[in-house]
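Subject: Sanity check before I submit

Could someone independently write out the structure tokens for this chain? I want to compare against mine line by line before I put it in a report. The sequence has 187 residues.
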Amino acid sequence: MKKAFRRIQLSANLAIILIAVMLSVITVKQFTSPTDATGSADGPRRIPATAAESNPNTITEKISPVGKPIPIDGLNLQNKKSLVLYLSTKCRYCTESAPFYKRLLEEIKSKDVSVVAVLPQSVEESREYLKEHGVQIDAVKQSSLQSIGVRSTPTLLLTNASGIVTDSWVGKLRPDREEQVISKLLQ
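---
Independent answer below. Compare away.
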């Protein structure tokens, strides 16, 4: 009888240890994985609302302000092209993307492209954040992201000389997407 009780007790203890290890592994993966639930390294998870949104080549009003002007007071987008970076000081993907933004600014330095950073935090806090990460942007504005149709950070919007959004990129970009942004700006 004692032998059977010990076996049951040992089995129960092993099961508890196994479950604890499995939960620990799942928790660590959840909080340290650089990819979203769909396996993409392009940033925060977005669940498409429609079948059209499932196609990354489809642009819909629900997810992008492409084709619309950017409604921010005092935003001067008179250059041939302008790049608007919608960031947040609290966004891990924005921070992880800072080396790309720094490289991007170097690549387009001699071109007729203006770059504006828009953050929901105060302009002072935003300037400090950008400076801390080596991203030297002179034009920094404060605006809520929802007021312009941007759902998450980071979001990059490319505008034409009329201030109309022509392209957008959302999330932490893969290297091939980073090159696409730079290429569009250098055209």
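---
OP: Matches mine. For the report I'm noting this point. The longest strand covers residues 113-119.
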